Amino acid sequence: MEENLISKKELLELTKISYGQLYRWKRKKIIPEDWFIKKSSFTGQETFFPREKILERVKRIKNMKDEASLDDLAEIFSSKLSDVMLTGSEISNRKIIIKNVIQICYPSENMDKIYSFNEVLYMDVVQRYLMDGGISIEESKIVFETIKSSYSNYLEKNCEIVFIRKMGVGISMILALPNQIYFESLAKIIMRLQINKCIEELKLKLEELF
């Protein structure tokens, strides 16, 4: 067996998932079909997988499956949409993110800058906060810096971004779900958004355009 491959038997034993789960995820395209590699072995034919990719994918699925349906996971893991790269002009012209929000988040960039899916997601979160009307433009920059700097620590986990205000001072934070948070009486929760729901809705919006 090549070093970078893992057998189906070893995968099931190592990750503690069942044969049925593995092939259910395959049918739902949560695990790409081309990761199922048939190779000859002394027992006939055996299925192997790219070791690092499959172990990371199974870990992410297990972290999310209690909070998201299989259909939701299929959307989240859709490589077609996650790999989308768009310029600021394309994002604005296609009404994904309005121009003012792009300029708030990336003030030093022109509209020819190319943005990744995650960068569009960060702007989408800011846009949702601003459209809700509960925060100012300056406070929206706090939300943007929070998700931009911290979201990588929560990738593929169910989490939410929360904005609170106390005596006129705004604070933004990302919290893993489920959670229970309590604040003193002077602090007020202005808005909270589940990031996975934002991802699903953004992907659906992009899917309609591509």
Please give the structural blueprint:
Blueprint: E1 5-7, H1 8-15, H2 19-27, E2 37-41, E3 44-50, H3 51-64, H4 70-76, H5 79-82, E4 86-87, H6 88-93, H7 99-105, E5 114-115, H8 117-132, H9 137-150, E6 159-166, E7 169-176, E8 187-194, H10 195-207
Antiparallel strand pairs: 1-3, 2-3, 4-5, 6-7, 6-8
Helix pairs in contact: 8-9
Question: What would your notes on this structure say?
Answer:
It is a single chain. The protein has 10 helices and 8 strands. The protein has 210 residues and is α+β, with helices and mostly antiparallel strands. The chain folds into 2 domains: 62 residues; 128 residues, no CATH class. Helix 8 runs antiparallel to helix 9. The two termini are 39 Å apart.
Chain-averaged pLDDT: 87
Low-confidence stretches: none
Number of domains: 2
Strand content: 15-25%
Largest sheet properties: 3 strands, antiparallel
Distance between the amino and carboxyl termini: 39 Å
* Class computed from helices, strands and strand pairing: alpha+beta
Tertiary shape? globular
Question: Percent of residues in helical segments?
Answer: 40-55%
How many DSSP H or I helices?
A: 10
Number of strands: 8
Integer-rounded radius of gyration: 21 Å
Order of helices and strands: EHHEEHHHEHHEHHEEEH
Q: Report strand order across the widest sheet.
A: 1-3-2
